[in-house]
Design goal:
2 domains, 5 helices, 0% strand, mainly alpha, single chain, extended
Length: 85
């Protein structure tokens, strides 16, 4: 495995990272620390590419995948209860 450099500011080459950097630059001013921003990015900010029918945060996607079908059918609001606790 080796290091491969991509051209700077070339989203076609490194789209996800470029998009993250753009989001970081656009929104970082609202937060005092990088840790606060990362928490917001992963728990509160909707990510439109995760579930196009139901926009969700990475935390929501993680909890949804973590629960079994049986858990979700027995308690359909389990994720909302867990997030708001």
């Amino acid at each position: 495995m080796g290091l491969i450099n991509s051209r700077p500011y070339h989203p076609q080459t490194n789209g996800k990272l470029e998009r993250f950097h753009r989001s970081l630059e656009d929104e970082i001013w609202y937060y005092l620390s990088l840790d606060d921003y990362i928490e917001y990015y992963n728990t509160a900010r909707l990510h439109f590419s995760l579930d196009i029918d139901n926009y969700e945060t990475p935390l929501m996607a993680f909890h949804k995948k973590k629960a079994t079908v049986e858990t979700r059918s027995q308690n359909p609001t389990w994720m909302e209860d867990d997030i708001h606790d």
